[in-house]
């Protein structure tokens, strides 16, 4: 279960508390009390920033290149242009 909330720079600590409270209340409305009572801890995750998504994409593209180099004819070099990376980020995320 999850949702995202918009955030501005000045309201981070207060917003984190509000998001956590809202998530807890939503879970209580969605699930039976018997289930909620079995949960020891809830964790609220913040959405990844663009910079973080770009770093993850670089890691994944590096892994693709490594797999290509490990093939029997491992002479294939894989490179993605900035436009290709932007396309992958745009199509691969819900932003």
Give the helix tally: 4
Can you write the helix and strand succession as a string? HHHH
> Rg to the nearest angstrom?
20 Å
Q: Tally of extended strands? A: 0
Biggest sheet descriptor: none
Structural class, judged by helices and strands?
Answer: mainly alpha
Helix content: 55-70%
Give the strand content: under 5%
**Shape descriptor:** elongated
Query: pLDDT below 50 for ≥5 consecutive residues: which ranges?
Result: none
What gap, in angstroms, lies between the N and C termini? 18 Å
Give the overall average pLDDT: 84
Outline the structure in words.
With 95 residues, this protein is mainly α. The protein is built from 4 helices and no strands. The protein has helices at 12-30, 33-36, 50-69, 82-92. It starts with 11 loop residues before the first helix and ends with a helix. 0% of the residues are buried. The mean pLDDT is 84.
Put the structure in a nutshell.
This protein is mainly α and 95 residues long.
Write the layout of secondary structure elements.
Layout: H1 12-30, H2 33-36, H3 50-69, H4 82-92
Q: What features would you highlight for this structure?
A:
95 residues, mainly alpha, 0% strand, elongated
